[in-house]
Design brief:
This protein has about 80 residues and is mainly β. It has one helix at about 70-79, and strands at about 15-25, 40-45, 45-50, 60. The protein is globular and about 35 Å long.
């Protein structure tokens, strides 16, 4: 989304969540789906999640027992 996009929103991370990776570019393999960069990787506890920055689409998630609600704040904000 463009900077002046009225649909763009800022999402505040909880104090125990952090951005562990920012991927401005991706290299794709022919015949496989390719995410739309940039990509953020978030971590909260033992859980991690990768999402497309512009669309908010979750492209990978690693949720462990006990952390099943780790990213509920994000899903609520993206609705």
């Amino acid at each position: 989304m463009r900077r002046n996009d009225p649909h763009r929103r800022t999402i505040q991370l909880p104090p125990d969540a952090c951005v562990t990776s920012y991927e401005p570019y991706v290299q794709c393999t022919a015949g496989q789906s390719c995410p739309d960069p940039p990509i953020y990787e978030l971590r909260r506890g033992a859980a991690s999640l990768r999402l497309e920055a512009q669309s908010g689409a979750i492209i990978e998630e690693d949720i462990v027992p006990g952390d099943t609600d780790a990213f509920d704040f994000l899903r609520a904000a993206l609705r």
